[in-house]
Specification:
Layout (H helix, E strand, L loop, with lengths): L1 E3 L6 H14 L3 E3 L5 H11 L3 E5 L2 H6 L14 E5 L3 H11 L2 E7 L6 E3 L18 E4 L21 H4 L1 E5 L12 H7 E2 L2 E10 L5 E6 L3 E4 L2 E4 H8 L5 E10 L5 E9 L5 H9 L12 E4 L13 H7 L7 E3 L8 E2 L2 H13 L42 H14 L2 H12 L3 H9 L23 H13 L7 H12 L32 H13 L7 H13 L6 H11 L5 H16 L15 H4 L11 H13 L16 H21 L5
Parallel strand pairs: 1-2, 1-3, 3-4, 4-5, 15-16
Antiparallel strand pairs: 5-6, 7-8, 8-10, 9-10, 10-11, 12-13, 14-15, 16-17, 17-18
Helix pairs in contact: 11-22, 12-13, 12-22, 14-15, 14-16, 16-17, 16-18, 18-19
Length: about 675
């Protein structure tokens, strides 16, 4: 009986489990999603003798409480990739089974396997007669063999680490319909794997990460994996990850994320670092992120793209060594602001832009790793994009279906049209009391002002970077007139009963303040540093509501995320983001084909944000799906109920602009 809890889109699940079981005529026990706590009960329940894994699965199983009878199970063997030597040994001891690791490229070109005598933390050697080596991807020269110290630490990683390359004729012709990707792999008649590694004097290969794992500190290049191996020795470490974050002057700084089984002791960590003989002079982390659970991709690999995007402005607590002497203090909001000023001082603030901001801001693709920013080693990611023809179809859809304001927003977004034309139309929706109505929110058809259309108007002003327009303060004046005793504004006021509206817009006679739309409005005003008497009480109301919240529905969750992304008290925002993260995620549909009124990751992250909710892999999957969801008419249709035909056209135009904004923010427009 085999056990399969890895995602079926990954070759490990197919080749290392399903294919083997099919060949042997074995039964397969399949779990929808990997669960560390459910692993051993499943093994015993189904009589599992073999399982496959990838990434950090063993580490999470080992993090569950050890019991005296753990070895009382039918397991005989497991096969996988990327477990540490320590985890493999501990897993074998604790569960009484054999762990087999192998290395192979998905293209089937390179295979490296353990043989008798292979060091515990080495991959092994390639088959006899297959010419595999390690080469510097920039110079093309073969790297020197690795040298180790008395404790086994790598002494010359700066020169020994390079890209694993097959140098003889390989049965690989390229990728289907993707010649650019094939050209990156086949260079000079050799197959370049994209994996970093090094080789010792006896010819054994060692894995050092992907090519995105290069760091460049003070002109020295090194890989993350050797540093991770050192940090994993720190007592209490469940999992660690090392990655590059930008330096204010030049190159990178080292940042580490640690998942610990107890509290972090900064003095003990300092003593540990100073005692490591194999810790290179540039390898010590400047920033340490403490995470309750390491962010992983669907294949149980560390989501380093998300870690890099969050930097030191993530939701988790961060400690740092401002003098780079391996002594650590908490990174406060004041220190974060000072760091941003340092980047501006040296003209490198652009490096921080892709991780911050939401609607209307330019959010770029993630930066190319430091070692590969220029020259022959440059890495280019090929992604599905919305074609020029599809974009033209969207323009025709807008012309035939959308309201004037949304057509002008489209012109501004795609063709660089004037923001003044959008502002002129938006003013027509504002009433004498400063509020907005007149069906700016398509489900509210009345002329009178309501809180929700104010939020819609402010998002539009944010998109145009026009918060200096007088409409903003007039809207705040209106909000003052409907603010409840607790400082919030209602979801909807009783005057809605007198107007045509969607049937779900109902309210009691004396409605209380509500997170929707108070939280989002307050967040936008904070983002643009608006000073108005309404904002202080509204902010305190929002904090009070958030801090007493334990369960959420999707619209409230989105409002909370909007607020936490923008409020100036970053430490408090990070704390609540960490506390509520699981509750927020529980409202999200991760399957892009989920029917009905579902809320998807891109609804919460329409642009890359400071507080990352989702692994990069999930966002990319949903961006692909978003492109595929364009209708034959050229627009994007709402997935929520329509109560009258006209609102379908109005919502369709509005949502088409929103979807195009998201695709543009993530670099998915051709």
């Amino acid at each position: 009986m085999t056990y399969l809890a890895m995602p079926l889109f990954h070759g490990n699940a197919v080749m290392a489990n399903l294919a083997m079981a099919t060949r042997a005529g074995a039964a397969v026990a399949m779990r929808r999603r990997f669960s560390a706590s459910g692993f051993l009960p499943d093994v015993r329940r189904y009589g599992v003798t073999y399982f496959n894994y990838v990434g950090r699965a063993l580490a999470y199983i080992l993090a569950t409480p050890e019991r005296p009878d753990d070895a009382a199970n039918p397991l005989r063997a497991a096969f996988g990739t990327e477990a540490s030597a320590r985890d493999m040994a501990e897993f074998g001891r604790r569960f009484g089974t054999s762990i087999i690791e192998g290395y192979g490229s998905s293209e089937g070109v390179i295979s490296i396997n353990k043989v008798p005598g292979t060091p515990a933390d080495a991959l092994g050697v390639p088959p006899e007669g297959v010419d595999v080596a390690v080469h510097d991807p920039e110079t093309g020269r073969e790297c020197p063999r690795a040298r180790f110290g008395d404790g086994g630490g790598l002494l010359n990683g700066h020169e020994a680490i390079g890209e694993i390359v097959r140098r003889d004729a390989a049965a690989f012709e390229g990728y289907y319909a993707n010649p650019e990707a094939g050209a990156r792999r086949l260079r000079g008649g050799w197959y370049w794997s994209g994996d970093l590694g090094y080789r010792d004097a006896e010819g054994y290969f060692y894995f050092a990460g992907r090519d995105a794992d290069w760091l460049r500190v003070d002109s020295e290049n090194f890989a993350a994996a050797p540093v991770e191996r050192i940090l994993s020795r720190f007592p209490g470490t469940v999992m660690c990850a090392v990655y590059a974050v930008p330096d204010p002057r030049t190159g990178d700084q080292v940042m580490a994320a640690l998942e610990l089984d107890g509290p972090f002791d900064p003095a003990a960590f300092t003593a540990f670092l100073r005692a490591q003989p194999d810790l290179g002079g540039k390898w010590a982390p400047v920033f340490v992120r403490l995470t309750a659970r390491m962010p992983l991709t669907a294949t149980n690999k560390v989501d380093k793209a998300g870690l890099r995007r969050g930097r030191w402005e993530c939701a988790d607590p961060v400690w740092w060594s401002p003098s780079r002497d391996m002594t650590f203090v908490p990174l406060t909001g004041e220190a974060r602001a000072a760091l941003r000023e340092r980047f501006a001082e040296f003209g490198r603030e652009r490096l921080l832009t892709p991780q911050t901001g939401f609607a209307g801001r330019s959010a770029a693709r993630r930066p190319i790793p430091a070692r590969h920013r220029d020259g022959p080693g440059r890495t280019v990611v090929t992604m599905k994009t919305l074609t020029a023809d599809a974009l033209a179809a969207a323009g025709r859809y807008m012309l035939l279906n959308a309201r004037l304001i949304d057509r002008l927003r489209y012109e501004r977004l795609i063709r660089g049209g004037s923001p003044d034309r959008v502002l002129a139309v938006l003013r027509a929706y504002q009433n004498a009391d400063g509020g907005f109505g007149n069906a700016l929110e398509p489900d509210l058809r009345g002329a009178g002002s309501q809180p929700e259309p104010v939020e819609v108007a402010l998002w539009t002003l944010d998109e145009l970077d026009a918060f200096d327009d007088p409409m903003v303060l007039r809207a705040c004046d209106y909000l003052m007139t409907i603010t409840t005793a607790d400082g919030g504004v209602p979801f909807v006021t009783p005057s809605v009963r007198e107007t045509p509206r969607a049937p779900w817009w109902e309210t009691p006679d004396d409605p209380p303040g509500h997170l929707i739309p108070t939280a989002s409005i307050a967040g936008l005003l904070h983002k643009h540093k608006i000073v108005h008497p309404w904002l202080g009480p509204a902010t305190e109301f929002t904090w009070a509501e958030i801090e007493k919240t334990t369960e959420l529905q999707a619209y409230s969750a989105r409002a909370i995320v909007n607020f936490l992304q923008r409020v100036p008290d970053r430490d408090r925002a990070h704390e609540q983001f960490v506390r509520l993260r699981e509750a927020i995620l529980a409202t999200v549909a991760l399957d892009p084909d989920t029917p009905g009124e579902a809320h998807f990751p891109l609804d919460f992250a329409p642009e890359p944000g400071e507080l990352p909710l989702f692994p990069e892999e999930i966002l990319q999957r949903h961006l692909d799906a978003l492109i595929d969801q364009q209708t034959s008419e050229g627009g994007w249709e709402p997935n929520f109920p329509m109560w009258t035909p006209i609102v379908r056209h109005e919502w369709g135009g509005f949502l088409t602009v929103e979807r195009l904004k998201t695709l543009k923010a993530y670099g998915r427009l051709a």
